[in-house]
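Exam prep: given the inputs below (a chain plus zinc ion), describe the expected output before reading on.
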Amino acid sequence: MIVSDMHTHSSFSSDGRASLSDMVAAAKAIGLRCYGVTEHIHGDEPSLAQYGETDAAAYFACARALQERECGENFSFFAGGEYNYAPDPRALDYLVALSEKYRPDFVVNSVHNVDGAKCCHFSYFEGKSKQRAYGRYLEEVRRSLDAPYPYDIVGHLGYVSRSAPYADKKLRYDEFADLFDEILRTVIRRGVILEVNTAASNSGSEFLPDADVLARYFELGGRKISFGSDAHYPSRIGEKRELVCEQLAAIGFTEITVPNRGTHITIGL
Ligand SMILES: [Zn+2]
Ligand SMILES: [Zn+2]
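Solution:
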């Protein structure tokens, strides 16, 4: 069983729908041992910001106080951030400085914007074939792996397929084998963790990236996997962890890796 969820949002993120203390209580109630909150942290220009910016000072102050109160022998709560990768040097500098100032327990590095457009928005896909829209997204993910700020987890690889307008939305390893291989080999070389994200909405997959990509990661030698529901309210915390556990075990994975302040904790499936 998977007993961690390291990608969730509380109302410190503008799209979160529950207080941080309610999210932590819900994570504890379903028996998680490791629970991570990853509020959206941007730094790119406001017109491209997916949502409003998190008040980092207020968030980390609240999270640190909750850690004092809630962490114990069987439950750890980690205060992280989901960094929105943008190639703009000012955005990158902002994220480097924010990391130094607040020292998040861990960071999920995510691509939401490509070529000046939000790739969860229909306008991103206008005039683009699936090959072009998905290919550009994967190129941007490849570039995000060289971000100058410290990060631990590569977030929702395949995010672009969540809102795509194509009849066949599924992002397949075979259709982008070279790009996926570059990304997966870089993840392994850097020693970072590949996330399995279960907020797949109507992507054609139950989770992102899908099992074909995870199998290739395993084949290349990748073993570090994180579980993230991307829950924005309590009832989604841990969603589909039974399914993901089964599929990971079928591929050959035996453990989940949880990052904490530059170290990795492993928990058997
Ligand atoms: Zn995201
Ligand atoms: Zn998220």
